[in-house]
Design brief:
Length: 233
C-alpha cells in the first residue's frame, strides 16, 4: 500500500509546489508590466457594472503585452492586455464588448475558479502518476504517455466548464448593468480574427481536447441563458 500511495502523495505535493511557483512568477510579471487602466471612454460602462455589483468601482489593470486577451490573476485582480485595449482604441472593439471581457474575468474571480484550478492542478499530477503506474503494468513504456493524454481530457473538460460558468456570470452581470448580452456575443463572433487564430489548425481540434469551448457553443449557451432568464438584447 505504501509503495502505491507514496508516489501519489509525492506527485500531489509536487503539483502544489509547482502551482505556487507558477502563481508567484505570474504575479511578479503582472506587477512589473501592469498599470491601472484609466480610460475615460470606458468609464460609463465600468460605472454601470460597478453599480450592478454594488461596488464603488471595478478596478482593472492594463497588462503591457501585445496579445489580445483578458485574465483574472490568482489574487483576484482583473487584467486587459494592451493588445486588447489597442483594438478598442482603434474602434475594432466597442466599450461594451470590452466590458463583456471584464465581466467574464470577474466571473472567474467570483466563482473561485483560481482556487479550483490550484486544487485541480495538484490532483492532476497525482492522477497522472497513478494512471502511469497502473497502465504501465500492462503497457510498458507507454504508460506515462497514455496517462498524460487521459488526464488532459479530464482537465480540458473542467476548464471548458469553468469558461461556460464565467460566460453565464458575465451575461447576468451585463444584463443587470443594462448593457445586455449582445456585446458579449458580438465579441465572440470576432474574437478569432482579433486573436489571429481564425483558420488555424487549432480551430479543427476536437472539442473534447480543447481547454476553451468553441465560439459557436459559447454563443449558443449565452442565448440559452437569455431565454431561460428572460433577458432581451
Amino acid at each position: 500500500m505504501i509503495r502505491v500511495l507514496l508516489p501519489l502523495l509525492i506527485a500531489l505535493g509536487w503539483g502544489i509546489v509547482v502551482w505556487r511557483f507558477s502563481v508567484w512568477k505570474t504575479a511578479k510579471d503582472l506587477d512589473q508590466k501592469s498599470v491601472e487602466l484609466v480610460d475615460p471612454a470606458l468609464r460609463p460602462v465600468m460605472e454601470r457594472m460597478a453599480r450592478a455589483l454594488d461596488l464603488p468601482r471595478v478596478r482593472v489593470y492594463l497588462y503591457d503585452v501585445p496579445q489580445v486577451n483578458g485574465l483574472a490573476a490568482p489574487d483576484g485582480r482583473i487584467f486587459i492586455t494592451r493588445g486588447f485595449h489597442r483594438e478598442f482604441r482603434a474602434g475594432r472593439v466597442s466599450a461594451e464588448e470590452l466590458a463583456s471581457v471584464i465581466a467574464h474575468e470577474l466571473g472567474h474571480v467570483a466563482l473561485g475558479h483560481g482556487r479550483r484550478r490550484q486544487i485541480t492542478f495538484a490532483v492532476e499530477n497525482a492522477l497522472r502518476a497513478g494512471l502511469a503506474l497502473t497502465i504501465g503494468r500492462f503497457i510498458p513504456r507507454f504508460g506515462g504517455m497514455i496517462a498524460g493524454f487521459l488526464t488532459s481530457l479530464v482537465t480540458s473538460r473542467l476548464s471548458r466548464g469553468a469558461e461556460f460558468e464565467a460566460d453565464a456570470y458575465a451575461t447576468a452581470l451585463l444584463a443587470k448593468a443594462g448593457i445586455g448580452a449582445e456585446p458579449q456575443k458580438s465579441l465572440f463572433a470576432k474574437l478569432e480574427k482579433l486573436t489571429g487564430t481564425a483558420g488555424t489548425p487549432a480551430g479543427a481540434m476536437p472539442a473534447w481536447m480543447m481547454s476553451h469551448p468553441k465560439t459557436s457553443e459559447r454563443i449558443k449557451a449565452i442565448e440559452a441563458n437569455q431565454r431561460k432568464w428572460g433577458i432581451e438584447g
